[in-house]
């Protein structure tokens, strides 16, 4: 299931409720064609990946969230763990602590566009 998020308080509660689970947030808009096309695929992924939490933020309805998370285009996907956005640094820390074999140099915490395969690859990488 994809949770619709309307404001910062609701978003904070959602991230806290996720605990250690991966959270995938889609920032979208009702008028956006690519957003409309990918939404059913995101919903299907939310049913497939039960250990991942999915949320949708409409940038027109939630301007504060869009501004806070620096959304410049839609759709934009951002990933969170333990209430924090997954960043290149958190991946580096995980690689050093858990794997000891380095890290890939490209950031993986955010991407723009309606690419379901890329989204699913990121989810699988971060689970």
From TrEMBL:
Any Gene Ontology biological process: spermatogenesis
Annotated Thioredoxin domain residues: 1-127
CDD domains documented for this protein: TRX_family
Key words, A-Z: Cytoplasm, Developmental protein, Differentiation, Disulfide bond, Golgi apparatus, Redox-active center, Spermatogenesis
A Pfam family it matches: Thioredoxin
Cellular component GO terms, alphabetical: Golgi apparatus
Location (main, coarse): cytoplasm
Intracellular or extracellular location(s): Cytoplasm; Golgi apparatus
Domain of life (superkingdom): Eukaryota
InterPro entries hit by this protein: Thioredoxin-like_sf (IPR036249), Thioredoxin_CS (IPR017937), Thioredoxin_domain (IPR013766)
UniProt key word Cytoplasm: yes
The family this protein is said to belong to: Belongs to the thioredoxin family.
Protein purpose: May be required for post-translational modifications of proteins required for acrosomal biogenesis. May act by reducing disulfide bonds within the sperm.
Protein name (record): Thioredoxin domain-containing protein 8
Organism annotation: Lynx canadensis (Canada lynx)
């Amino acid at each position: 299931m994809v949770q619709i998020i309307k404001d910062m308080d609701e978003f904070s509660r959602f991230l806290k409720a996720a605990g250690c689970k991966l959270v995938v947030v889609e920032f979208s808009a009702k008028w956006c064609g690519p957003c409309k096309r990918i939404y059913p695929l995101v919903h299907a992924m939310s049913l497939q990946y039960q250990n991942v939490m999915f949320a949708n933020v409409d940038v027109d309805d939630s301007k504060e969230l869009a501004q806070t998370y620096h959304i410049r285009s839609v759709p934009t996907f951002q990933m969170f763990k333990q209430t924090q956005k997954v960043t290149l640094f958190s991946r580096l820390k995980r690689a050093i602590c858990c794997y000891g074999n380095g890290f890939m140099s490209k950031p993986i915490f955010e991407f723009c566009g309606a690419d379901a395969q890329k989204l699913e690859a990121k989810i699988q990488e971060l689970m």
